[in-house]
Amino acid sequence: MLKRAMIAGLNAGGVNVLDLETASVPLTRFHCRATLVSGAITLRLSADDPDSVIIRFFDRGGSDILEEQQRKIERLFTREDFRRVRPADIGDIDLVPRSLEQYALALEHTIDVKRVAARRFKVVIDYSYGSTSFVMPNVLAKLGAEVLVVNPFASTKGTLGFDRDEHAAQVAALVKASGADLGALIDPSGEQLLLVDDHGTVLTFDQLLFVFLDLVCDNLLGDTVALPVTVSRAAAEIVESRGYKVLWTKTSAAALMEEADSPAVGFAANLEGGIILPGFLPAFDAAAGLLKMLDLLAGRDVKLSELVAHAPSVHLLHEQVITPWEQKGTVMRTLVEQTHGREVDLIDGIKVHHDSGWVLVLPDPEEPITHIWAEGDSAGDARTLSQEYARRIRQMLK
Q1: Is pLDDT of 300 > 90?
Q2: DSSP per residue, 184-215
Q3: What are the structural domains, with CATH classification, of the chain?
Q4: CA pair distance 85, 14, nearest whole angstrom
Q5: pTM over 0.90
Q6: Residue 68 scores a pLDDT above 90
Q7: Sheet of strand 265-269: strand arrangement
Q8: Conformational region of residue 138, where left means phi above 0, alpha means psi within -120 to 50, and beta covers everything else
Q9: How far is CA 28 from the centre of its chain?
Q10: Nearest alpha carbon to residue 145 among 291, 14, 29
Q11: Of 157, 213, 261, 329, which is most buried by a Cβ count within 10 Å?
């Protein structure tokens, strides 16, 4: 009903609409590029507040629009400054023919199908009631994979009750019981990926990133990996040890995707299970990430648990300090003054380097909150750095 209302409003403004019906976010992004449209919109209910609707706007390349564009749309909406057309100019509605087949075929072209099929993987996949389940079965069948599927149908009620930890524990139990090579949890939007190794261990997002970096750096398409400034320095060490460069980006998904669209970037990811394979789509795509993981494991002929065992340990903390809107600017300016003489990065917020680690202080763009990320050589160092900067901020607010 909400989507139909949105389509009717766009048509009334003279905009032609291609209806993908029920589609995952990555599939929607894919067709932005494949059909040469001006942009795209997705709607879904918020899992945190079922009475709220999340509306996301993508540009013609399938990437999230930037924050300044979001604010411009909000201002136009508030002023009711809509485009109005004559009846003869009202937009049309069309369907995209074979949209799932086009996307599935493009996914297949990102991997070595024969190599993966020869490995004969056994995989457990939880689709989390999302529409990624419409695409993956046909692709996995061509790979000769034995698949145990959980929640393989789209359900709004199911997605609203989605609990990542609960679903991950279920996948882990099934991996151990079935002797699968790995398990995968794909979130309802189809963007975030979580993996379980062959021992039934749920990978942290840090471990997921390290394993991907270890594998993709065998044959990176490009000479650069794009990562948000919140990522551990251990990730940079993996990339640089293989002769590649790290491009640090802002923390927002839109900023990371914008950099991923550069020809030099061969891989990008964040610390929330978002995997970007720019050669396929410069945006988060859990299905593409899972298929690429199978391809890379087959190429090196290694088990996921073996890579996890060699992943570096990190000590990275995140905390929040309530900060009134009117004082955010003062807090950031004062911190810049206090860090005089230290190495500082201003890519996003203030990242201060210390002998025992680093601290990133970043105001939240939507809430009266200041985020603090701290990484140390030990858990104690990370805690000390985090607490010190939290103390400084609270002192400024008195």
Answers
A1: yes
A2: EEE-TTS-BEEEE-TTSPBPPHHHHHHHHHHH
A3: 2-97 (3.40.120.10), 316-397 (3.30.310.50)
A4: 6
A5: yes
A6: no
A7: 245-249, 224-228, 265-269, 275-277, 281-284
A8: alpha
A9: 15
A10: 291
A11: 213
